[in-house]
Amino acid sequence: MCENDTYVNFVAKVGAALAKSNRITIEGLTLCTIRFIKSILMQKFKLCSYWVLATMLLMSALAHAQQRPSKHAKVKNIILMIGDGMGAAQVFAAYTAQKGQLHMTNFPVTGFSLTQSASHYITDSGAGGTAIATGTRTYNGAIGVDMNKQPLTSILEIAKQNGLATGFVVSCAVTHATPAAFYAHQGSRAQDEDIAADLLKTQPDVAIGGGYKFFAHRKDGRNLIEELKQMNYQIADSTADLSRYTSGKLVALMAYGHPVKVSAGRGELLAKGTQTALNILSQNRKGFFLMVEGSQIDWGGHDNDFDYMLQETIDFDKAVGIALEFAKKNGNTLVIVTADHETGGLALTEGNIAEGKVGGKFISKDHTAVMVPVFAYGPGAEAFAGVQLNTDLFKKMLNAYRFKK
Ligand SMILES: [Zn+2]
Fold it and tell me: pLDDT tens-digit profile of 143-154?
């Protein structure tokens, strides 16, 4: 049948164009449509129903294509988001509580990360953060150093060396293990004051979290807040409205020690901090690297406090939503959501997605060995599919930027 041939031909052409590239040009579509009309007129077929069907198919294909970034776009920016202690059960607990509406489970590419450290089957956040940040497995408790305590260069530092803007946003003290692994080099995660001093050496453009005391009230008598001001940093404290900051360099220490739980009134620190960091870092035309950590998912697990873990995971997902929204508009931004390890050995034992109710049990007060989810969105996201070592995340980010180590 000619009618069918024409119709099938048209849909096949559009399908092939979409398959070839997720970016379909308006010119290409127009040309395709004109050819189709021409073929109908020439053949004088009554193809009204086919037209409607083809248009509907085309519209849905286009809507789908718009949501998916181009595989071939260049990666300018990377937003790496780490849910500390966030295994698959933590993600699915949040998914259930949110009645199936979660940003991270909407990512088109998914994989797993193997979290083991060089010294232990079960990692801590120091070694876990260092593996992701530097591509090298090290001993538990290490911050940005190898087994011989030699410094390792992090993805944040490499991005900075290449002229990109850099920053991080966390819901713990900025000196805590995960963020520290991206800018500090110390033998032990317990050296908060030494880690704080390393922030002034690495000088990321944006640092948002807690930990004022490690900068202002130190054993060595240095006042790092004053030193930061002399380095042209804007300093924000817990009273500051983060949305005021749209350019320049910013260190925001929103708590004396660790910020409180989100359920105890932390507010939108993580989501607003992520938005502020994106506003500032995206001013750099070369691009940026941003790390965001949902730090207290882990602490809910250590406390075996299901609601604490749940609220922190939902709070983290709000920040993921901010990052995703930016990436969708920007087109050159790769977003990776993962964890350094699972905490608590959580199992979900009851739930109802329609009602948003969920409950579970922890079997450990510590971290566990299971592999953790990896979600990726944006150009180069496909590289993060499958099962990978935590150190592969660093290597794949480096490749996405086309940087050499
Ligand atoms: Zn932990």
Answer: 999 999 999 999
